[in-house]
Amino acid sequence: MRKTRTTTLATVLALGLTLAACGGADDTADSPTADTSPSAVPAPAPTEEDADDDRATDEDTDAGGSFDPTASGLAAVDVAETEAGGTAYQLDDEDGDGGWEVDVALEDRSVEVTVGPDSQVLGTEDDDLDDEDRAALDAATVPLAEAVQTAVAEVGGQLDGVELDDEDGTWVWEVSLDDTDGGDDVEVTVSTTTGEVVSADA
User: What's the predicted TM-score (pTM) here?
Assistant: First the structure.
């Protein structure tokens, strides 16, 4: 009798364990498994505060580096030529605020493009192109931007402005530079045809 009870008890326990194991396997198979890998967890949507932080970081980065008027002016020339679809022939510093006025020749007219410190076009104004400027540009093989780079390489300094000028019958780019290597403000003239420095006067 005792042997039968022990055998019965052992059988019941074995069956119970078997059923529990089967039930656990079925539950695991039927229930969805949560994927907690980093790629499966969606990133939270950016908030306005995040955008403000990003803008602040960009501004800090810009503020950390010193402002380069020459790079800014050359960028303005590129933006203005793209905006007007012509050739830049004059560049003026806009009151020292980092903005520029760029005169762009387009056939028989001139387009003055105002470019902000962030290289955004702030406005345009059409005017007639002077015959002398048209003739000088037609003969020029050296663009304004290249003349600026040549002048800065010659005396250093920071770009203040550029214009076409007739020097003794020869057309030149007159590049105005502030705070040059010699400590003076200098006007460097660069040939519009050869790209060579003609003169550099303080």
Answer: 0.67
